[in-house]
Amino acid sequence: MSDQHLTDIEFSSLALDASLLAALDKLNFKRCTPIQAESIPLLLKGKDVSGQAQTGTGKTMAFLLACAQKLLSADQAVASPGKPRALILAPTRELALQIHTDASALLADVPLKLAICYGGKAYEQQKQQFEEGVDILIGTPGRLIDFFKQKLFNLKSVEVLILDEADRMFDMGFIQDVRFMLRRLSEPEKRLNMLFSATMAHKVLELAYEHMNEPQLVQIQSDTPAVERIEQTVYHPSNQEKIPLLIGLIQQLKPERSIIFANTKHATIRIWEYLQGNGLEAAIISGDIQQNKRESLLKKFHQGEYSILVATDVASRGLHIPDVTHVFNYDLPDQGEDYVHRIGRTARAGNSGTAISFACEDYAMNLMDIEHYIKTSLPTVRISNEMISTPLPPVRMKKAKPPQHAADGKKKPTSRSPQRRRSNNTNKSKP
Questions:
Q1: How confident is the model over 71-94, as pLDDT tens digits?
Q2: Domains along the chain?
Q3: How far is residue 63's CA from residue 195's CA, in Å, rounded to a whole number?
Q4: 166 contacts 204 by C-beta, under 8 angstroms
Q5: Treating both helix axes as pointing N-terminal to C-terminal, what angle do 59-73 and 93-106 enclose, rounded to 10 degrees?
């Protein structure tokens, strides 16, 4: 983290438990970011906080420290089975996993037990977490509601509530699930409440004032919504030029670590296939990738085994991916807010970065809304012949195997004869 990104407020000057200060020292966290410096003192005094700051500014560490301090200083310091003491809601499994990773590092030597619940896998394993006491429960709304309705836990015991990326909850249609859970908590006055987000829309503020106890609004933002340390440019390729231009730019720029955003999972797969075919190894986060593999690929991208990540907007928020030098908007997003979140994957923690966008035939109309939102015009770069690569053929992504029959391990039989199946397969192979 760049020193320019930090304040003069040291964590050691805050009224934090000795075990938390030791953990911060072990992680080499000495000074607060602006959002931490303004929000943590309020939270340590028992004030609810609605915090807004750009991505990569330390919101997660702010709410984890305040949460842990509240639980460590409480009279009842031991959790009982089925009675979590803190609830952290996140809109996506990736963000929930990232919060859990950060919390595990911070609380490795602190006597607080974590649990995580999210859809996609490990159903029985996640249920077993509630057989013992849980201090901090992290999860996505759908899976948590599932377990709640099975009476695996009760929400009346919650002493700390944290909503992370609440505006994303609205965008993804989860807000009714969020309200379902909030209405089953104790009264706002009986708990410490936090809401952190990169944006603070009116609907988010309404949610805060409805389910929090007179929250203090803390906003850390620059004069313009876009990160100022990002060099932003836009190209205007035809649809047929997008892949050759993307590959050509990557070959010329040789970015150390980059994320390529597309609007659909079909587009991410097509990009990945062409990258593979042209010797550019990449990880991919898409709905067609199994959750175990997605987590493994994301971990390898974190660790630098892959220098390119291809993703939809699932990777534009919450994920703490260090040292991303370039962001490519292969497709322009529909909203200016999503554009800001995407390019915010670079220039994190005081660093600089580069954002390159393609205003193609399908998405060029989004450029006007994006420029209106960021209050500036994006510089246009003319496409030269030297930028356009002649790509090699793509390497096709292997499709998942069909489900096996539960009894004998064979494929589920069909009513068609072998001869009919061969005929159909022959027809399908034709262009």
A1: 999 876 677 899 999 999 998 888
A2: 3-220 (3.40.50.300), 230-387 (3.40.50.300)
A3: 9
A4: yes
A5: 60
